[in-house]
Structure formats: C-alpha cells, structure tokens
C-alpha cells in the first residue's frame, strides 16, 4: 500500500500581508514623508505654494481609496489569516525564474561592458555620460524585460520545498538578486538601491521561517547606518566628479533650489565639528533627497503644460516601443521637450498630471481597484503574486517622492514581475488547489 506524501506548506505572514493593503501602504508613506519633513534640518524657499496642487494630491489619494472601497464592496472577502499557508513553488518554475533572471543579468552585463563600453571603475559622471552617449541595444531592451525577475528570486527560493533548496542555488539566487544594487553602486543610481532595499525588507517580513537574522534590531540598525553612509558616499563621489564640495551642493543643487539647509544645519556644515559635521552632512543629504519632491510639486504645479500626454510620461517605454514599430519617434521629442527640471523629483502627482491632467484622480480610482484585486490574489496564491505586490507597495509608499512607475525602470519591473506571476499562476494550478486544501485542513 502506498501513501501520498503531502508537501510541507510554506508559512507566510498573513498579518504582514494585511499591512500591504494598498490604501494603508499609501497612507503610511504619506505620514512617513510628512514626519520626515517636520524634523528635517531644511527650510523652504517656496514662497507661493500652489493651492491647486494640494487639492490635486488630496483627490489623488481619495481616488485610490474610492477604487479600493469599490473593489471590497463588490467582492467582499474575509481578511487573510495571521498565518498564511501556501503550497511550495515547483522547482521547475523556480528554475525558469532563475534562468530568465540570470540570462537577463548576463545580457545586461554584455550590453554595458562589451556593446556600449561603459567605463566600470571610473567616476559616476563618466559612466552616465557613456550610457547617455550610446543608444540602448536590442540586447539591452530584451534584458530589461526579464532581468527584473531577480527582485523576486530570493522569495521564490524560500518558497521551494526544503529538499529542493541547496547551497548552490541559494548562492546563485543571492548573486542574481543583488545585481541591481551592484549596478546602482557602479552607476551612482540611488533609486535602484531603494528598490532593492524595499524588496529585502518586504521579503524578510513575509517569510515566517527564513531570513530571521534580518529581523534582529542590531542588524537592522547597523544595516541602515551603512546604507545611509553608502548613499552619502555615492553623492560625494558624484560631487568630486563635478569638482564641487558638499556645502556648495547643499546650497546650489537642484534639491537645494526648494529646500536648502536651515541655519542650524548650515552651522555644522561650515564649522568643522568632526563627527557631528559628518553626521549633519549625511542627514542633510538624505532629507534633501527624500523631501524636496513635495516642495518642488508645490512650486511647479501651476507651471505644468496644459495638454495631457495620455500616459506617455509614466508609460514612456511602451509608447517608445510602439513608436519604433510604426516608425514614429515623436514621443521621444515630446518627453524631452517638457518644461520640467530633469533629475528632480516632484511626487507621483506631477507625472500623473502630465499624463491625465484633472483626469488623474479617475486613474487613481482605477489603480485602487486593480491593486486591491492584486492584493487579494496575493493572499490566494502568494508564490505567483507577492513580488509584484511588493513592488507596487514600494510605488504606493513613495507617492510623496516620485513615480516609481517611471523612475528606476519601474515599468520594466512591473511588466517583468507581472509576466512571471501569470506564468506561475497558469503553470501551477495544482499548487493553487493544494494551497486551498491546506488552508481548509
């Protein structure tokens, strides 16, 4: 007589998943931003803030809430249990994800080092100049679609059965996962580092039985301090490449246009107070980087163009691809000629307004509905949908900063993780049924 051995379920945190409800994430992101603005050692130079900008942002958040409420009203369901059981991810699907992401990373490396001759090891200005001087190759475009799967690869690895995991697979998965951070360090792109950090924190929070060392307060404190130092170091190296010191930058940079340091911070930046001056330098840089967006938004809103782009800004890469197919590159010129300050964040709402004008809140209603649908789908089949939910949580949390649909190659990440989610959903029907059985039993 033979007995069927049922796999041990993967234990995930339903309590944490409840915290990723879209409106809740967006509100927490807003409160975090406002708190940081309140304590930041900065002063505002915006003397005539736009009242309509505040109205537009309020309508945007309201639209998100209305969309979520509409979904939950039409499709009421019980909240996810505190402990969420899931069938393990089949090894063949993990190997597909690992293979695609590894291929994407390899293609990206070849594109940068061989085809575009990016000077790795030199200053950030040289790296960026070479990237801007050379057009993206077909290899780069192909890699951009599949390499973002690497953001979900650690989660996929720990969703395997224990007997399917190995040290070799774990090492390869870690290297692939960390590649975007490495590339960001080499090119001085901090937004990509924020995405990697977000995935680390969200992945360790959803996994109940793994990555426990990342929950250690000491490890988190040390890691946070090192990351802030790394952010500042990257900024200093970029300033050296431009022949500028930090104090000058803190007063004249694009960020400082709306939020220069206040008198208290300026004192420590001018006077050599050893560790305190260094610490103030880090604090000023981080808060200028994170907080300037809201002030820029209040400054620029009334100066924005009156003609909507109908998605061509946030979804530029899709429009660009369609333009390449039909031989029309006018969208490239349209975006390049926008009268906005390049490289300066202006919250999620400036890109939203550029695309849809006062129809933006309607787009947010649609977004709230779809993201609530995704959140519910994640509770039912986390192995397929959690990585995409994690990234969309990053997008929502950072609404006061910028649009991470447009920034940090966000659209590529969304398309890549959506494609992988659909693939797992379609090819792991038995896993869906087993997950439902585990939760009933």
Automatic annotation (TrEMBL):
| Superkingdom classification of source | Bacteria
What stretch or stretches form a coiled coil here?
A: none
Q: Which UniProt keywords are given for this protein, alphabetically ordered?
A: Membrane, Transmembrane, Transmembrane helix
Which parts pass through the membrane? 21-41, 53-72, 93-110, 139-159, 218-235, 360-377, 384-405, 411-429
Q: What is this protein called?
A: Oligosaccharide repeat unit polymerase
Q: Could you read off the lineage of the organism from its UniProt record?
A: Bacteria, Pseudomonadati, Pseudomonadota, Alphaproteobacteria, Rhodospirillales
